[in-house]
Amino acid sequence: MDRPRLDTERLDLRPFLPEDAPEVQRMAGDPEVARFTLAIPHPYEDGEAERWIGTHQEDFELGRRIVFAVERRRDRVLLGAVSLSLAPDHDRAQLGYWIGREHWGRGYATEAARAVLAFGFRTLGLNRIQAQVLARNPASRRVLENLGMTREGVLREFVRKWGRYEDVEVHALLRSAFEAGD
Ligand SMILES: CC(C)(COP(=O)(O)OP(=O)(O)OC[C@H]1O[C@@H](n2cnc3c(N)ncnc32)[C@H](O)[C@@H]1OP(=O)(O)O)[C@@H](O)C(=O)NCCC(=O)NCCS
């Protein structure tokens, strides 16, 4: 089963390939990326990127998760990742993303995530897409606001990140709101 591809104005969202592993390790291994994410290990060990990329096909085929590599079309540079983790019984997914630090502030996360939201609602038929963001991550909160998500609440000290309990905000978009704003 082929994993999906999406196009936006500047970006190609495509499956990760084994040859992306060194760039994934370099960008996701950056402490400035890892310190804001809930799932990226740190330090980022050799072999971890290959292992992670190696889970994507099976996760897609089992309907668990769809992970897109975010590639800039004009020069084929890998910028980061966007994913949907699926809860099929509820027509729900959780959005996740990271962008390599040298590419921040150019609208890439917003552009990529917007395409993935449209794919989730229109192609997958999802009813709700949510995101969990560390309360101390204003850039990611801004991305979610720009996507039209509603901040639903704060899960206090929901995670332990690098030895500290941290508040996590839940943001979400329902299909009804997506269609109304579309
Ligand atoms: C969060 C992240 C994905 C954003 O990527 P990006 O490509 O720079 O995002 P965009 O350029 O599309 O949008 C960033 C928005 O945040 C705003 N922003 C950036 N830093 C900010 C800050 N310190 N405070 C408030 N807003 C900030 C930008 O101005 C922009 O908003 P605008 O378009 O309204 O001006 C990137 O910083 C990242 O990978 N961080 C580490 C990993 C992470 O946090 N992942 C998300 C986990 S929930």
Short note summarizing the structure:
With 182 residues, the chain is of the alpha+beta class.
Distance between the termini: 30 Å
CATH architecture: 3-Layer(aba) Sandwich
Return the string of H and E elements. EEHHHHEEEHEHEEH
CA radius of gyration: 16 Å
Low-confidence stretches: none
Strand content: 25-35%
Helix content: 25-40%
Task: Determine the CATH superfamily.
Answer: Gcn5-related N-acetyltransferase (GNAT)
Bound molecules: coenzyme A
Count of helix runs: 7
CATH topology: Aminopeptidase
- What spatial form do the alpha-carbon principal axes imply? globular
State mean pLDDT (0 to 100 scale). 97
Give the strand order, joined by hyphens, for the main sheet. 1-2-3-4-5-6-8-7
Describe the protein's architecture and organization.
The chain has about 180 residues and is an alpha+beta fold. It has a single domain, classed as Aminopeptidase, CATH 3.40.630. About 30% of the residues lie in helices and about 35% in strands. It contains seven helices and eight strands. It has helices spanning about 20-30, 30-35, 50-55, 55-60, 110-125, 140-145, 175-180; strands at about 5, 10-15, 65-70, 75-85, 90-100, 130-135, 150-160, 165-175. Strands 1-2-3-4-5-6-8-7 form an eight-stranded mixed beta sheet, sandwiched between helices. Strand 7 and strand 8 (about 165-175) form a beta hairpin. Helix 1 crosses helix 3.
Secondary-structure blueprint:
Layout: E1 6-7, E2 11-14, H1 21-28, H2 31-34, H3 48-54, H4 56-61, E3 65-72, E4 77-87, E5 92-99, H5 108-123, E6 128-134, H6 138-146, E7 150-161, E8 164-174, H7 175-181
Parallel strand pairs: 5-6
Antiparallel strand pairs: 1-2, 2-3, 3-4, 4-5, 6-8, 7-8
